[in-house]
Specification:
Protein name: Curli production assembly protein CsgG
Low-confidence stretches: none
Order of helices and strands: HHEEHEHEEEEHHEEEEEEEEEEE
Keywords: Cell membrane, Lipoprotein, Membrane, Palmitate, Signal
Shape: elongated
Radius of gyration: 34 Å
Strand content: over 45%
Structural class: alpha+beta
Largest sheet: 8 strands, antiparallel, barrel
Number of helices: 6
InterPro entries: Curli_assmbl/transp-comp_CsgG, OMP/PagP_B-barrel
Number of strands: 18
Organism: Chryseobacterium formosus
Helix content: 10-25%
Strand order of the largest sheet: 10-12-13-14-15-16-17-18
Length: 455
């Protein structure tokens, strides 16, 4: 017995060491790190690879800041740190520079710029009196033909949370995740007449994950062994904001190409056709996107044929019920995107070991409800009535159940379900005893083929 206990302890220690090694491989280290260049996002590369305009657009950004006023969520009391970085204007200017479409000019701290120019003028007037008067004139400041306005308008915490875990004989592991969401708006304003030329809206999810493992075991009556390992990874808010702003700048450029906002700055329109087509395709796909980056892409039709293999076990007046297999098939008609009428027939056997074995053919009529009909993965519930035909007699019952369906292909769904049959009588087993009617529990796994017009 002690040999197996020793083997289990060694195994747990090796498991904990492996988890620790995984953490080291992911750069979880206590050593000091040197300063590095800032990370780039996928949209940074996309901005830098955009086809260039004929000439850059002079653009000014006075203020593009956090408009939420929200503080970081905290479980241990008040936290006075802001949830969103306060340097979003600087991030936007960097994105404009990376795109190579714009010539940003200083406007956020223009008072400092004007003060410095005034100091230069005063110094020249005082110390360069005998020099050429033309040398005292500073070149004029650039003025913007367009202003960019907007800001971070929303930061939503815990938009989606979840996790999974298991523990067996003191050994356990768990994983958790949380999604936050940041939203920005960016608009282009003409300095000629104040017209708002275009507004774009971008959202970005921020992911936080946690993985933990633990070991808790009494080795002896007075000895307890306990160990834990784990790591947590939080997506940096600054990178999420940068990613969203760069996406907004790219969207603004492409929307401007489509609506001819940039005017003479554009080159040959054919040079930009590919990025416009890709943008339109993304926008079309984004039409059905829901919170959590979930896309409603299901194409369930008005009609479907289904078949499944079932396992069942009877609950009657006899002991030792035996699990048996059966088959079920039928047709469904969707008169609404959520509701359908199902007509089916099944063949199965009910058995009590060494006592009774009966085979039934059972037609059923059910009303079924899909909770998420537009999604590939949808729960469903149903209820109805049916009959049970055998060589001896006919019985009647009601049933209800539920399950899940996943559209593995365009018109083919995989279903898993469970059903509870409630008899209207107590003689499925040809014996009436007690007050409860006979009933049965059934589990099914099958396919659902859709055809006809879409809902």
């Amino acid at each position: 017995m002690r040999f197996f206990l020793t083997i289990r302890i060694i195994f747990c220690m090796l498991l904990l060491y492996a988890l620790q090694s995984c953490g080291t491989a992911m750069s979880f280290t206590s050593n000091k790190e040197v300063s590095t260049m800032g990370e780039i996002t996928t949209h940074t590369t996309e901005l830098r690879n955009l086809p260039l305009p004929k000439e850059k657009v002079v653009i000014g950004v006075y203020k593009f800041r956090d408009q939420t006023g929200q503080y970081k969520p905290s479980e241990n009391g008040a936290n006075w740190s802001t949830a969103v970085p306060q340097g979003t204007t600087t991030i936007l200017i960097k994105a404009l520079e990376d795109s190579r479409w714009f010539k940003p000019i200083e406007r956020e701290n223009i008072a400092n710029l004007l003060n410095e120019r005034q100091i230069i003028r005063s110094t020249r007037q005082e110390y360069l009196k005998d020099a050429d008067k033309n040398s005292q004139n500073l070149p004029p400041l650039l003025y913007a033909g367009m202003l960019l306005e907007g800001g971070v308008i929303s930061y939503d915490s815990n938009v989606m949370t979840g996790g999974i875990g298991a523990r067996y004989f003191g050994i356990g592991a768990s994983s958790q995740y949380r999604q936050d969401r940041i939203t920005i708006y960016l608009r282009a304003v003409s300095t000629l007449n104040g017209e708002i030329l275009k507004t774009v809206y971008v959202s970005k999810t921020i992911l936080s994950t946690s993985v933990n493992g633990s070991f808790f075991k009494y080795i002896d009556t007075e000895r307890l062994m306990e160990a834990e390992v784990g790591f947590t990874q939080n997506e940096p808010i600054q990178l999420a904001v940068t990613d969203a702003i760069e996406k907004a700048v790219k969207s603004l450029i492409i929307e401007g190409i489509k609506d001819n906002i940039w005017g003479k700055s554009l080159g040959n329109p054919a040079d930009y056709q590919k990025i416009v087509d890709d943008y339109d395709l993304e926008a079309q796909k984004n039409t059905n996107r829901q919170i959590g980056n979930i896309y409603a892409t299901a194409e369930r039709s008005k009609f479907s044929l289904f078949g499944q293999v079932e396992g069942n076990q009877v609950r009657n007046d006899y002991v030792n019920p035996v699990a048996q297999f059966g088959l079920k098939g039928g047709v469904k008609y969707f008169f609404d995107k959520n509701f359908n009428v199902e007509l089916s027939a099944s063949a199965y056997r009910l058995e009590n070991q060494g006592i009774l074995r009966r085979t039934f053919i059972s037609p059923e009529l059910n009303l079924e409800y899909f909770l998420l009909p537009k999604y590939k993965f949808s729960p469903f519930i149903y209820a109805g009535v049916g009959g049970m035909f055998s060589t001896e007699d006919v019985k009647y019952k009601s049933q209800f159940g539920g399950g899940f369906e996943y559209l593995a292909f365009k018109n083919l769904g995989v279903r898993i379900s469970s059903q509870y049959d409630i008899g209207f009588s107590d003689d499925w087993d040809l014996l009436k005893n007690g007050k409860r009617n006979d009933h049965a529990l059934r589990f099914g796994l099958g396919l659902n083929l859709y055809f006809g017009n879409k809902n």
